[in-house]
Amino acid sequence: MALQTLRARWVSFLGTVVALVLGVAQVASMGLLLMGMFDLPQRPVQRFATAPAVVQPNDPTWNASEHDVGARSLAQAEGVSAALLAKVSATGPTVVDRSFYAQPAGGPATSVGHPWAVAGYGGYHLVSGRSPAGAGEVAVGVGQGRVGQKLTVLTAAGPAVFTVSGTVSAVSWEHAVFFSDAEAAALSPRIDDLVALGPLDAVRAAVAGSQAEVLTGQDRHKADPSATTDRRSLDDTITLVPVMAGVAGVTAVFVVASTFGFAVIQRRREVALLRAVGATPQQVRKMVRGEALLVGAFASAVGTALGLLGAQWLAQLLIGMGIAPSWFTVAISLKWTVLAPLAAAFLVGVGVALGGAVTAAGRAGRIRPIEALREAAVDEAGWTPGRRLLGLLGLVGGVAWAAWIGIASPNSVLSPNTYVMSLTVPVLAAAVLAPFAVGPLTRLLMRPFRRSSGATAMLVREGALTSRRRIAATAAPVLLTVGLAFSLMAATSSLGAARDSGAQNQVSAPYALVPDGTPGISPQVVARVAAIHGVRVAAPLATTIYTPSDGNTDQNDALVVDPAALRDTMKLQVVAGSLDALNDTSMAVADIWDWPVGSEVPVHLPDGQVATLRVAATYRAVRGQDVAYLPMRFAASAAYAKDGLVPDAYVSLAPGTDPAAAAKAIRAAVAGGGASFVSRDRLVSSESSYSTHLIKVRQQSTALIIVLFCFIAILNTLLMATADRRRDLAVLRLAGATPRQVLKFFVGESLLVVAIGTVLALAATAVNLAGLWGALLQLFGSTPIEAPYSVILGITAVSLLLALVGTVLPVGAALRGRSLGFVGTGE
């Protein structure tokens, strides 16, 4: 009977099939993307494509001495040590590679300097001229200079004029500037990699026991210039994909279950007639289960196949947003990383179809035959005990979770995996509670039209009050679209604004120097500014520190800065201790590190230097803004660790200094040096741009996928709901309503549906934002809730437009038919 019913009523099931196909496709795509993290494609080797073996330092780890278990040491944290260089060189010819900042005037900020000896291993070859042979000579890419030209090159040592001795072929993965080996060693003391040309077994034996590894074959890509960026991108992808998969999967399952249940609700008249002619409850449920199984299996199979394409599209979306590396893709094969998510998506689709259909048909199957027609004619309740319990649990859980975040766990908003998922709870709870809210909201929203002329407003009001379940089902996609988009985007904007406000409150200097098309500022440029009368400059140098933690290594960011300059230019919220106690043997750290004031911490620095520093002060900070402030005696170590550039410099003026004259002198001092003189506000904006971008991409990409799916759900649900009401349309026509009046009635009902969904979305969003406001208040102090209201209004307007399209199209088609034909058949 189920198969015969499907053949006869396939049009009625079309909307359900579309919703299920899209839902399963979304679940399959997310699953493939998530499992793709375990089967990443091989990327081509770049810098050392023709090198037989590359020696690269490992990430630092703590090693216990065999003779003294209590003694711990850390090998040179970054770069190749002199001892390792000597061991590898003893095995045969060895080529030293150094990578450092070197930007030709007018060239890209990503330009990298190398010694000429490694050029050939990356596919570079001379196009004209000769290789750089001595001081003051460079070889640049074709188009960056010509042989014999005097070219200004920005380096960590400041701008300097070099002579172009030759030009080299360009490659797609790097903008390189080549120096003589001696010049490169002077510009960068750190050795990044070694190309070992001796016997491989001897090289491995020489490296054994050191904090380094020998890379051969495909592993040589670990030494590529994009390796660090790719690792960061993959980390971002691994963080983002589970969030997207969780939120999008929950939304898809909810919408599909709601749509399938709504399709069965629309057939209550048919089920009622079956009960009236003698069908037992078991027969009704068996028929519905059979239909759901057939529809679910077909739609899930199609959705699973469509998910293969969707996964590729999502991968390209992540690449386009700058989250995933350019070579990231989802490999389609017969491996478990592909088959498992596809099978899971198929089973989810079938399960959702069965669950949505059986739950909705259960109540119709339990009613007595004598009540069947009355139950089918007027839908007064729509508020079953099970739904009431589920909705109340969701409401209490959503409010309690928001209160927990706002009061007891404010740091949760900084963790996207936890926080983004929590935003869905109040929204889904509002969708479950929608039938209960339809009545009060209908009366409230229709109150302004009580005295309107004509019967349209009255018909819309009474129709909604007697069809609460249908109104709730059609309002649910609007609620999910607006509620989730509003919550996610408001959280993104508010968190970004709060971070900016917190960073701005930490900086007391009115001015700053920021990089101008360069990755940092040369210390020489900073020194020129500091030499101006009446100008005070604090120029922190970025570095990395390594500290022991339960037998492992903790890696944290640090800034090397003069303590007096730190006190003059920064307003750190000191929690314990005092910044006045900072000296050459102490440091200030973030309170979230849980290092008590007075404790002595062994700190290992990137150049292998070891120091025990006392914690002089702890200051309030959140993740992403937590650093250690170290004394200036570690400046050389900082230059060794990074590129030797100053990320930002804080500028203040001595009392009595003319601001206009000082600004003019500062701008003259930084001209051509790769730096700009800006206000504090510009500084905060530039410092927070990357973290803000990352947060926006994480949450707005999730919102994008949800909104696209929900847009389709809105159109699909309204088409289903309106197309099934041909009998109502026929009754209106028989009662004397003109086509225009009929269309006006259905449009008015659609507007009411969108209004109800939007009001419920705003209520759910208010719960989310209340928790967010409390959390931001504790983390950053008083800060307003911000949101891209124009975007949210646009999403709401598109939802309204889709609802109108989903109403007008089937009504217009029905109006072209014969009205009397619908009454006699019950259709």
Automatic annotation (TrEMBL):
Domain of life of the source: Bacteria
Pfam family, any one: FtsX
Broad class of where this protein is predominantly found: membrane
Subcellular location: Cell membrane
InterPro entries, per the entry: ABC3_permease_C, Macrolide_Exporter_MacB
Regions that span the bilayer: 12-38, 240-265, 292-319, 339-361, 389-407, 419-441, 471-491, 703-721, 742-767, 787-809
Keywords, sorted A to Z: Cell membrane, Membrane, Transmembrane, Transmembrane helix
Stretches assigned to the ABC3 transporter permease C-terminal domain: 243-367, 703-815
Membrane topology: Multi-pass membrane protein
PANTHER family: ABC TRANSPORTER PERMEASE YTRF, MEMBRANE COMPONENT OF TRANSPORTER-RELATED
Family assignment from sequence similarity: Belongs to the ABC-4 integral membrane protein family.
Protein name from the UniProt record: ABC transporter permease
Organism of origin: Streptacidiphilus cavernicola
